[in-house]
Write a structure and sequence with these properties.
Helix content is 31%, strand content 25%. The chain has 556 residues and is of the alpha+beta class. The model is unreliable at 131-150 (pLDDT under 50). Pfam families: DUF7800, PhoD. This is Alkaline phosphatase D family protein. Residues 1-90 form the DUF7800 domain.
Length: 556
């Protein structure tokens, strides 16, 4: 009997469409059934011997909550027999009430040693399964009967980086690698290719039944960060040259980008965008003609790495009065011997076009925080100037070494890009690109602690802020936590501001301050948008199956 390897995952949704993604253990027809769904089915396609399907569903009602089942070659495969979780539902947008976006980043996979604390994503799933979608007595809740806690059930789950760790392995992943190659051969203690990435995704999204259920019933959008590929991915031109000099790097980068395209990116796309995507068409065609689309995908992945402008990983979706812009701040970097930018020219032009007024709220998701604690911002801008020769050639080499060793590669370390985005945001927030939104909010992760920072200057009509939630499961410990706690103190910024000034770095075009946090525990955050109001709450897993509040704030 054909079986599900991964999924079903509920991915892109709109008011009337939904996308179901699955991986199966053999080629088959995948069919999704439920009241009002109609005839929704797709054949699998094959890449590197793995079989995938994307089932697109149209004609749904706005704000629908439709229980569904998945059949493989006519045999029901989901829900699984004996499950203790509620029915998986297709959840479209556009109903009455607020829009809730839950988000987080940096999640280490479940492991028997439990070295990284309670999993905020799993605890979130248990919380929803027990109270978020059920009325008293266990009957399914009606859309008009919202949970007692207004933050409880999200419309969207946004995972903003490090969904998998390709360079920090669990013992379960090491055991898998030992079964297929010498683990001491480069890359030692890291994944090597597409096949090992597939196991990494299985461990991340299948091993915990609560997380698997959550991904089947909450619409999920993603963007990658460095550990999805490798720590410090694309930190500099020097780093890229160092990596491509390694004989094992091609299989690693093509496996990482190719698997990201399959397991994450395809589900971020709307049905119309996916239908127009030439890579998707080519992979499916190659799968049908030769039995496997691996060659097409590998060539695409290598080109995407070597020619960033050839591929756009960023995307934007409008949900009622809210626009979500998800920015790729990793693969689309401009890194040459002469120029450097967080985004290449084409990517920035796209972002510039998306940053417009006329919405109630503008959300800009970037895996890397745009507004860091001030001390870290000044340290990174000073280091960039140092690495580019502000203090001489010898200091430039030292600056590059410091950059890689201390992970100084956020927006602040790409000063020109930081200023370009600031100009866009200020123009939107002042109403120069249409009516000003109530809020312009950056959503980010990466740094392994959570906070809210607010822009205080220049004055704008919109509230401009940065919300960070990290990690879902991978907390800082020991000296790393202490160092970052010190770095978030307001007084710490002065010496690094002086260093930046001595390096002739102009003052930042924005001023901001942290108003909530920092919190260093595993956490998940939920942003609630209602008319012109915006609120946020952070929750941390008090137990493996429950969440407690860590902080909350009114953004505007």
């Amino acid at each position: 009997m054909t079986a599900l390897v991964l999924g079903p995952h509920l991915r892109h949704v709109s008011a009337h469409t939904a996308t179901i993604w699955v991986e199966t253990d053999r080629p088959c027809e995948v069919r999704v059934t439920g009241d009002g769904i109609g005839d929704a089915a797709s054949r699998t396609f094959t890449v590197h011997g793995h079989h995938y399907a994307i089932v697109e569903i149209d004609g749904l009602e706005a704000g629908a909550r439709v229980p569904y089942e998945v059949a493989l070659d006519g045999e029901r495969a989901w829900p699984e027999d004996g499950t203790r979780f509620p029915p998986s539902r297709i959840r479209t947008l556009g109903g009455d009430g607020p829009l809730r976006v839950s988000f987080g980043s940096c999640r280490r996979s479940p492991d028997k040693a439990n070295r990284h604390g309670h999993d905020a994503l799993a605890a979130f799933a248990h919380s929803l399964a027990g109270t978020g979608d059920r009325a008293p007595g266990g009957a399914p809740a009606d859309r008009g009967d919202p949970p007692e806690d207004a933050f409880e059930w999200p419309d969207v789950l946004l995972m903003v980086g490090d969904q998998v760790y390709a360079d920090e392995l669990s013992e379960e992943m090491r055991a898998f690698i030992r079964g297929r190659r010498d683990p001491d051969e480069p890359p030692a203690d890291e994944v090597a290719d597409y096949e090992e990435y597939t196991r990494l995704y299985e461990l991340a999204w299948r091993e915990d039944p609560a997380v698997r259920w959550l991904l089947s019933t909450v619409p999920t959008f993603t963007i990658f960060d460095d550990h999805d590929i490798r720590d410090d991915w694309n930190t500099s031109y020097t780093w890229r040259r160092q990596m491509w000099s390694q004989p094992w790097w091609r299989a690693r980068i093509t496996g990482g980008i190719g698997s990201y395209w399959i397991y994450q990116h395809l589900g971020n796309m709307s049905p119309a965008d996916r239908a127009a995507d030439p890579v998707y068409a080519a992979v499916r065609e190659a799968s049908e003609e030769s039995g496997d689309g691996a060659k097409v995908l590998d060539e695409f992945a290598e080109r995407a790495d070597k020619e960033p402008a050839s591929t756009r990983w960023s995307y934007a979706h409008d949900w009622g009065g809210t626009r979500l812009i998800v920015v790729d701040s990793r693969c689309s970097r401009l890194l040459t011997a002469d120029r450097r930018g967080m985004l290449d020219d084409e990517e920035f032009q796209w972002l510039d076009g998306q940053c417009q007024g006329g919405m109630d709220h503008l959300l800009i998701a970037s895996s890397l925080p745009y507004l860091l604690p001030r001390a870290i911002h000044h340290a990174e801008s000073w280091n960039e100037a140092m690495a580019e020769g502000a203090w001489g050639k010898r200091s430039a080499r030292l600056g590059e070494s410091i950059r890689q060793a201390a992970d100084l590669e956020h927006w602040a370390a790409f000063d020109a890009s930081f200023r370009e985005v600031a100009a866009d945001v200020v123009a939107v927030a002042r109403g120069e690109r249409g009516p000003a939104p109530a809020s312009v909010t950056f959503l980010s992760g990466d740094i392994h602690y959570s906070y809210l920072a607010r822009v205080t200057e220049p004055s704008t009509t919109s509230t401009v802020s940065q919300v960070v939630c990290s990690p879902l499961r991978n907390p800082l410990v020991g000296r790393f936590r202490l160092a970052n706690r010190v770095a978030t103190a307001r007084a710490t910024g002065a010496p690094f501001r002086l260093l930046a000034k001595l390096s002739k770095v102009a003052p930042p075009p924005l001023r901001w301050r942290m108003t909530e946090g920092p919190w260093f525990d595993n956490a998940i955050a939920t942003v609630e948008l209602w008319d012109r109001d915006c609120r946020v709450r952070w929750q941390t897993p008090g137990t493996p199956t429950s969440l407690t509040e860590m902080g909350r704030a009114t953004v505007c």
